[in-house]
Design brief:
Layout: H1 29-45
This protein binds zinc ion.
The site of zinc ion (ZN) has 8 residues, from loops.
Length: 64
Amino acid sequence: MPSETPAGPGKCPLCGKPRVQQYRPFCSRGCRDRDLNHWFGETYRAPAHEGPDGGTDDDRFEGD
Ligand SMILES: [Zn+2]
């Protein structure tokens, strides 16, 4: 597996580290929580439930 892929799919959108499948598309629960908090904060002001950057719908919630 190539480890020198440019920034793109397969990397954490927050810190750029290789993402972990368990927390995809993030690299860790910390980054995932950070993103969720970010979204929750935005949701308070934005009625739309859709993200600004139309990416893949990968915001499924699965318990630990
Ligand atoms: Zn990260």
